[in-house]
């Protein structure tokens, strides 16, 4: 975590946010010893930084597990920064309902300046590692990424999409484009194990009155439990939830 000193900056503030960045980069909560090992900060100083960050709500400490994760204040700042607070507030009750009804994890993702990010998650299985947490950016090849590719304004996601597609062989790019047309027709995207082995997901769009995308509603679980088509009972339930959410934003199905 050693960086060149800059006399025009407050070094302790830099270190504090480097700790926040370190926690954000992981796909699971960290113990004190994990953070100490990764950061190289002395134990006495790290205690002070973590206590301060926890007090400010920038970091959350699970007292039972003794682990640290991103705090609610960061989530609040993030939602205000991307202007999606209304979306999150509307979708969150549905996430809980979907998670309870399907016994799968449910999340909502919204578009930032350059990629989709997870804004909230409801999980029915605390032991399931879905490979992502609130604030994580999602790749094009994920089910969520495919929904944004199919429905987000082209000029907003052009660079993000182009960068990802350039890494694919021509045959895979062609297959992706053909699949995208199907996603636009069915309002449904499925991807097998995009981030974690044995964990798959499907995603559906959330639209507003002018048919523009406001977010993606995604269901994640063990590959054996996640439906691959929009015709499955679970898929139909989630699509109905998405339709109700979209209607609250003025969308009317054609």
List keywords for this structure.
single chain, 254 residues, alpha+beta, Arc Repressor Mutant, subunit A, Beta-Lactamase, 2 domains, five-stranded antiparallel beta sheet, 9 helices, 47% helix, globular
Short description:
The protein is an alpha+beta fold and 254 residues long. 47% of the residues lie in helices and 20% in strands.
Give an overview in words:
The structure is a single chain. This protein has 254 residues and is an alpha+beta fold. It contains 9 helices and 8 strands. Strand 6 and strand 7 (199-207) form a beta hairpin. The longest helix is centred in the middle third of the chain and has 18 residues, at 85-102. The radius of gyration is 20 Å and the shape is globular.
Following the backbone from N to C, one meets helices and strands in this order, namely HEHHEEHHEEHHHEEEH
- Could you tell me the radius of gyration in angstroms? 20 Å
Integer average pLDDT: 88
Count of individual beta strands: 8
Widest beta sheet: strand line-up: 5-4-8-7-6
What is the 3D form? globular
Uncertain runs: none
Characterize the biggest β-sheet: 5 strands, antiparallel
Oligomer: single chain
**What is the end-to-end distance?**
54 Å
Structural class: alpha+beta
**Percent in strands:** 15-25%
Treating each run of at least 4 consecutive H or I residues as one helix, how many helices?
9
Q: Estimate percent helicity.
A: 40-55%
Count of the domains? 2
At CATH level 3, the topology of the largest domain is Beta-Lactamase
CATH class membership of the largest domain: Alpha Beta
CATH superfamily of the largest domain: GAF domain
Provide the CATH architecture of the largest domain. 2-Layer Sandwich
